[in-house]
């Protein structure tokens, strides 16, 4: 039995998610109980620095170098505050952190190399909290021939597979990603992929028009209407027809694309938000119809991530998926917000036990591999 912390800071840039879990076992014998969870928002300056570092036009090596250590310090401060708020006295076996994705190139062009970069150096966490830190989970999968994403499906296999139902786990973070768990499945029968934009485009438009981080419950989208030519143009993106396994990110659906849309349709802010929300709902349903439903009958869809709290998005998703039960993770007794932080705690646990945790069917890797780098407790010397 081990107390561990899992941390996630995603492409939606809403902040640092921290989950304290009670873990035991590994592989299919893993048990995981969520003890506490909280999210600590990024300040506006840090958000802008991450965005600047993530775009070729505004990025530079000094900014990335500095931000790598700045985020490491912010992660450590979040853990310090978390432990104090929840009065956690038990020692931590380890901390597992995804880090902040700056760039992801699963399918590079123009002579670039198949690669990924997550920053937020783990040394500060290890130093301040006197524990092992597991980080940088994606590169080893990419070296093994995969896309480095999605990684959460392995944890969903451990936590959500059901003997009676064909379950689809849909995460709606900055990017949408889906894990398909056929009833009573083995690891080899799971498949997963990124469905396309989740909250990323909606959030970027909300920031452009209203200087808000997200559309609370979808209330802005609800006041607008579809812009037909915009929706049709967005639906024609070649990513939506690409066969899985596949992964995407800010490079295809980020602020650069959204800002151009907002400039062009600057007189119709609510309609832009409505249309981008519809795109997310459509892209999820469209990917199911193309890549999942020909293989099996979906019994239920379980939504996690911040998008689960956008009621208008949930309504549109249900509309686009008639005759399929759509639930939130809360409906089965789990937290939508904490999902990815918990996932990285489980992935870190696999690493600590020298066990693989990439699903080849999800990432496209040729072999299963142990993920992550281990930063030892720097105080544990003889």
From TrEMBL:
Keyword terms: ATP-binding, Carbohydrate metabolism, Kinase, Nucleotide-binding, Transferase
Residues annotated to bind ATP: 10-17
Name of one Pfam family that matches: AnmK
Gene Ontology MF: a single term: kinase activity
Enzyme's top EC category: transferase
Metabolic or biological pathway: Cell wall biogenesis; peptidoglycan recycling; Amino-sugar metabolism; 1,6-anhydro-N-acetylmuramate degradation
Main function: Catalyzes the specific phosphorylation of 1,6-anhydro-N-acetylmuramic acid (anhMurNAc) with the simultaneous cleavage of the 1,6-anhydro ring, generating MurNAc-6-P. Is required for the utilization of anhMurNAc either imported from the medium or derived from its own cell wall murein, and thus plays a role in cell wall recycling.
Family statement drawn from the similarity comment of this UniProt entry: Belongs to the anhydro-N-acetylmuramic acid kinase family.
PANTHER family, per database record: ANHYDRO-N-ACETYLMURAMIC ACID KINASE (PTHR30605:SF0)
Protein name, UniProt field: Anhydro-N-acetylmuramic acid kinase
Source organism: Wohlfahrtiimonas larvae
């Amino acid at each position: 039995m081990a107390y561990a912390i899992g941390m996630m800071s995603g492409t939606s840039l809403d902040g640092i998610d921290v989950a304290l879990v009670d873990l035991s076992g590994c592989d299919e014998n893993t048990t995981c109980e969520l003890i506490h969870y909280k999210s600590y928002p990024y300040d506006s300056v840090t958000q802008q620095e991450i965005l600047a570092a993530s775009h070729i036009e505004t990025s530079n090596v000094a900014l990335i170098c500095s931000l790598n250590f700045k985020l490491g310090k912010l992660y450590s401060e979040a853990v310090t505050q978390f432990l104090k708020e929840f009065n956690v006295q038990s020692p931590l076996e380890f901390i597992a952190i995804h880090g902040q994705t700056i760039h992801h190139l699963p399918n590079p062009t123009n002579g670039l190399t198949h690669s990924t970069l997550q920053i937020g150096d783990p040394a500060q966490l290890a130093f301040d909290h006197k524990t092992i830190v597991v980080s940088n989970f994606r590169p080893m999968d990419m070296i093994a021939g995969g896309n480095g994403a999605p990684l959460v499906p392995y944890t969903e296999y451990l936590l959500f597979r059901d003997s009676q139902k064909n379950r689809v786990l849909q995460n709606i973070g900055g990017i949408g990603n889906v894990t398909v768990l056929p009833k009573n499945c083995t690891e080899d029968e799971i498949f997963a992929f990124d469905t396309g934009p989740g909250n990323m485009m909606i959030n970027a438009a909300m920031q452009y028009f209203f200087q808000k981080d997200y559309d609370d419950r979808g209330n802005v989208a609800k006041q607008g209407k579809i812009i037909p030519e915009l929706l049709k143009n967005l639906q024609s993106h070649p990513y939506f027809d690409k066969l899985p396994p596949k992964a995407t990110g800010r490079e295809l659906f980020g602020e650069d694309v959204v800002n151009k849309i907002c400039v062009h349709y600057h007189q119709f802010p609510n309609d832009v938000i409505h249309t981008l929300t519809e795109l997310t709902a459509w892209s999820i349903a469209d990917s199911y119809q193309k890549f999942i439903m020909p293989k099996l009958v979906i019994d239920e869809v379980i939504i996690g991530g911040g998008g689960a709290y956008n009621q208008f998005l949930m309504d549109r998703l249900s509309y686009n998926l008639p005759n399929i039960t759509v639930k939130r993770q809360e409906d089965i007794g789990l937290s939508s917000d904490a999902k990815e932080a918990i996932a990285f705690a489980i992935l870190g646990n696999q690493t600590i036990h020298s066990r693989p945790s990439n699903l080849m069917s999800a990432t496209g890797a040729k072999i299963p591999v142990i993920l992550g780098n281990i930063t030892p407790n720097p105080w544990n010397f003889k």
